[in-house]
Write a structure and sequence with these properties.
It contains twelve helices and three strands. It is mainly α. The protein has two domains: 80 residues, Orthogonal Bundle (DNA polymerase, domain 1); 172 residues, Intergrase catalytic core (hpI Integrase, Chain A, Orthogonal Bundle), CATH 1.10.443. A hairpin with a 4-residue loop joins strand 1 and strand 2. GO terms for molecular function: DNA binding.
């Protein structure tokens, strides 16, 4: 099987198992490796992979990015071995030394500052802040959220299509309910999406647009960096400080991968220690 056929077969077989963006990134890593080494899939070895990873490091890629690319290669080569395309996996045993960064999330004081800043802006932005913080959902999940997914009596939201196409139910607070209803009460349209694009009123709000507001407005005016994903971390950290077990938090976050588990275990322990230090 030639390289192109092998790559196409991987994409076809994994389209229902992984998020399409993940598949795209995995295959990009494979194509970049092939281009850099000048080798075909069946002639690649550990030396070629290590030389490519070293090249990425010299080009200034962050360790997290290089590790992600290596993870894509490992998934692809594991598939090739399972399908009998390769007899050995050239990526086995290769690892990236990662410097563990300190988990970052907002303190209650910084969260209050963010809320006060957004209070002066439009209702939709205030509602977005509360939904992200109260549910811990991803920005992509917020973009896809529909009105029919909200169950007001139970104060829950059904996330229909999360990462790797797994749905789940998340909770939201009374404060979130107030701001979300205040925003939706201003809507006179029948568009099914909870948050709509400022540019195209019949489409869901764009992930890029929300990220840009955080990056170019909130972060600059507050004097510290805040992103939609920061609120996801803050959601987890604040629940940890209130005593919720880690496994419950992970269920609400909707993830199962070992890498995510390790990160949120560190975040959990860090948040609990901060709470301990505050009272000692």
């Amino acid at each position: 099987m030639d390289c192109e056929t092998c790559i196409n077969q991987f994409e076809l077989d994994y389209q229902f198992c992984l998020d399409p963006k993940s598949v795209e990134l995995y295959l990009l890593s494979v194509k970049q490796l092939i281009e850099h080494s000048g080798k075909s899939i069946d002639t690649l070895n550990k030396k070629h992979i290590r030389l490519w990873l070293y090249y990425l490091s010299e080009k200034g890629y962050k360790p997290q990015t290089i590790s992600s690319k290596l993870g894509g290669l490992k998934t692809f080569f594991t598939y090739c071995c399972e399908e009998g395309i390769l007899s050995t996996n050239p990526a086995v045993g290769i690892s990236i030394k990662m410097e563990e960064s300190k988990p970052f999330y907002l303190s209650l004081t910084d969260l209050t500052k963010l809320r006060q800043l957004v209070n002066k802006r439009i209702l939709a932005e205030r509602a977005i802040i509360e939904v992200l913080y109260a549910t811990g959902m991803r920005i992509s999940e917020l973009s896809n959220m529909r009105r029919e997914d909200i169950y007001w009596n139970e104060r829950t939201i059904q996330i229909q299509k999360g990462k790797r196409k797994k749905g789940r139910i998340v909770l939201f607070t009374k404060e979130c309910e107030v701001h979300l209803k205040a925003y939706l009460d201003t809507r006179m349209d029948d568009v099914p999406y909870v948050f709509v694009s400022p540019k195209y009123a019949d489409r869901p709000i764009q992930i890029y647009y929300v990220g840009k507001r955080f990056r170019e407005i909130y972060s600059k005016q507050l004097g510290f960096r805040v992103t939609p994903h920061t609120l996801r971390h803050t959601f987890a950290a604040h629940l940890a400080q209130k005593g919720m077990p880690l496994e419950y938090i992970q269920t609400l976050l909707g993830h199962e991968s070992p890498q995510q588990t390790r990160y949120y275990a560190r975040l959990y322990n860090h948040a609990r220690k901060e709470l301990y230090d505050e009272f000692m």
